[in-house]
Each structure stands twice: as C-alpha cells, then as structure tokens.
Amino acid sequence: MSALRPSNLPKLAVCPCYEGSATAGPAAERGSLLDAAFRAELTGSALLRDKLSSEEQSAVSWSVSVVRSIAGRNRILAREEDCRTRMLGLEGTADAVVPARLTHFDLKTGLRRNYREQMAAYSLGLMEAHFADSWTAHLLYCDLREIESLPFTHAEAREIVEAVIVHVENPHREPVPCEYCGWCAKADTCPARRPLAADGLRAVQIPFDFEAVVTDPAELGRFLAACAVVEEFSERAKTIAVERLKSGGELPGWKLVTRQGSDFVDAVTVGHHIQAMGFGPVLAAYGTLSASKFRELWTERMGGKPFPEEAVKHSPPISYLEQNSKPNPNKPTS
Ligand code: SF4
Question: How far is the centre of ligand 1, averaged over its atoms, from the C-alpha of 3 (Å)?
Fold first, then answer.
C-alpha cells in the first residue's frame, strides 16, 4: 500500500521514504478511540464515553465545545462518510467539517507537532468539494486544550501537497533520518540509520576521547546525531528483551526486576477530607494547574464571568536540543 496518505504527508515531507508501521502503538490506538468518541459526541451519541477515562472524557468534551462555538448555528458534519475528501489522487477523512464556515477540525492527542501538510490536503479536498477559494483547518490538541488554526488558499494548499507528492515520487529519493524514524516500518532495516548507529557504537571504542569530541563543534554534532539513533535502537532492544525475559527466555547479564506500584490517594477521597485538612495546604501539595486547564474550568464553572488574565503566570523559557539538518553518515570520523 502506498505511504501517500494525508496523515503521512508531514512525515513524507521530511523523509520521502517513510512508511507507516502496520501495527498501531498504544498512542495511536488512544488517538483513534478519542477520535471516534469525538465524532460520536458531535453526532449526538455518547456510546463510547464509558471506554474513556474521566480526563479523556473532559478532553473530548472540550473539543466538542470548541467545534460548537466556532460553528455557531451552522451544520456540523462529523459522520465519516460526510467528512471523506479526495485531493490529487489521495483520500482522507477530516474529523468534523462546518461547510458554512469554510472550516474543518482535526482532533489531536499528545503534544503539538507539525500537521501542516495533512491539513493542507484536507483543506484542498474540502475547498474543491465545497467550491471555496480559502479554508481554515483547526487542530484541536485535546490533551493540552490548545487550538492551532491554519488558513490556506486553494493555491497554497495545492502547492504544499504537490511538493510532498513530487518529493515522494522522485526516483532518486533518499531516506532522511528524522524524528519520525521511531514510527517508521523500516526503522530496524533502514539503510540511512544503520551507518549512523554503527557510527555511534564506533565512538565508544578504545581509545574513546570524549574531550576531543566535545571540543570540536562538528564532532560534537555528529556524535549527538549518532547517539540519537543508537538511543532509539536501544529503546526498541529493551522492549524486545523484556518480552523475551517475561516469556521465560534468557538474556545473559540481564534480569527482569518488578517494582511495586506507587501508593496514592484519589481525588474523591482527598475531597472528603479537604475541609478538615485545610484547602491551602492540600492545594499547595497538589501544585500548579496549567493555564489552559484553569481556563477550561473557569469557562465551565463561572457562567460567563470574564477570565482573570492577570492570574496566568509564565514559567521561564526552556532550552533543548533539536536536530535541524540531515547527518552525513559517509563523512569520515576524523
Ligand atoms: S527509518 Fe527514518 S530515515 Fe529510514 S525511511 Fe523510515 S523515516 Fe526515513
């Protein structure tokens, strides 16, 4: 089956050789369940609610309330057959469409990521189906309670999707190690990753001069790129090793250790005692609440009272490393 599907386009834009794994991981399964519950709630059914945790129910309810508030009195399409769309030979399904507002919605779980190419594809198909020149895709990050709105003209959306198709259909395309490798069906065998992993392992051979690595910026960048690939292989190897030991197999030098789960008191029980214990100390022990969660609770509970923006505090920015160029596995080490 071709990897060219709207949901794969953001990955294919980075690595034209990406191929989705045939088995869905737990995160993907959770995403599909929340998607189905979101559609069900928008079409007036609460069938899947009992399969969700209370936090997930609240995430879906938040998403549904965003769609309803943007749609106003306009019709919301959420049945799969009403949200299917085609574009440039591809086919996909948006989560909810409000044709009168020239907009569609896509529910996303987990952290914010790049979905621009996928949203351009849906927007292109929907613009063609509804004879529109412009369209807005709303990404609903339900766990974070955040909305990202991506407006497209017909020409922009077409250009974005065509660029990925050309990239993928290039007979000389090359794999590009990237953040999506862990989800790729070729992760264990990819010719672009193997030399990088071997490179990382070479670095620990004797004599390994760490000082020389960290003092040379080019060497340091190359070392980190190699480590990233080795770390990923290491995580996969650990999963396989745990399964082997659990099923009675042997792994020389390793054993399975089972730790007791942590003890906890649930929120309902804390609620029973909170008055006697004092709200202040209990809330201080719970810690801070994210601004988006507080905003959501305020909207739910305060009956239209203006949100106190001055209550939102900002934590200091966090710096972290992100790889921004393709490592070259063929470059000599020194
Ligand atoms: S493993 Fe990574 S580099 Fe290789 S094809 Fe898949 S996404 Fe591309």
Answer: 12
Atom of ligand 1 nearest to the CA of 181: 2
Q: Which residue has the tokens 């969700």?
A: 52
Phi and psi angles of residue 19, each rounded to the nearest 5 degrees, phi first = -140, 125
C-alpha distances (whole Å) from 238 to each of 28, 148, 258, 259 are 21, 36, 15, 17
The two tokens of residue 211 are: 């000082």
* Residue to mutate, 176, 196, 326, ligand 1, most ligand atoms under 8 Å from C-beta: 176
> Residue 201: its pLDDT value, please?
67
Atom of ligand 1 nearest to the CA of 187: 1
Question: Which atom of ligand 1 approaches the CA of 178 most closely?
Answer: 2
Instruction: Identify the DSSP state of 330.
Output: T
- Judge whether residue 263 has pLDDT over 50: yes
Amino acid, single-letter form, for residue 155:
A
pTM for this prediction: 0.72
